């Protein structure tokens, strides 16, 4: 396995191109890969489609990308918060597109993307505006709507510890959307608090195996050192 070491965190996001689909882990501030997002704000890729449970505050999270005019479309469950007025203005003038997805459906669409399942039926959202324009089918007397899988070009995730191969351990509520997003992207970049040697992590504690992780960022490293599996 070829390994590359980057001198700065910014280099880990340098190849993210305009028009990319980006999966961003986290639930509120828990498990949010905020330093990777900050690096992408500086990098400046535009016309992004961003998939995240929620948007965050104006200066943090996905909202920072929106405020910097980098997002073309946002797919999320919870778009309200301190940034709401800015988002409403952008929706009104057509500079951003918003797709609201029920939280469980969002998680399953991402999981399906990682598992190679193109679509699935769910009763969630049936008979509401969320079902408009979608195929429906009845199962056991209930109407279900067809939801398509979500896959990303890149995923930003946050974990507590990794070995240098990229096996990940999450701390408590960091284990939200992060593990499932790691499986559904072409390139997964993990922001972690600690990188340890091989054998220092009990295999039974590994949540996300290294096969899904392409780059590691140690968020408290003096120079934002980045290791990558390419």
From TrEMBL:
Checking Pfam families in the record gives:
CoA_trans
What InterPro entries has UniProt attached to this entry? Answer: 3-oxoacid_CoA-transf_A, CoA_trans_fam_I, CoA_transf_BS, NagB/RpiA_transferase-like
- The question of whether Transferase is a record keyword is answered with yes
| GO MF | CoA-transferase activity
Keyword Lyase listed = no
Q: Which UniProt keywords apply?
A: Transferase
Annotated signal sequence is: none
Q: Which family does it belong to?
A: Belongs to the 3-oxoacid CoA-transferase subunit A family.
Indicate what this protein is called per its UniProt record. 3-oxoacid CoA-transferase subunit A
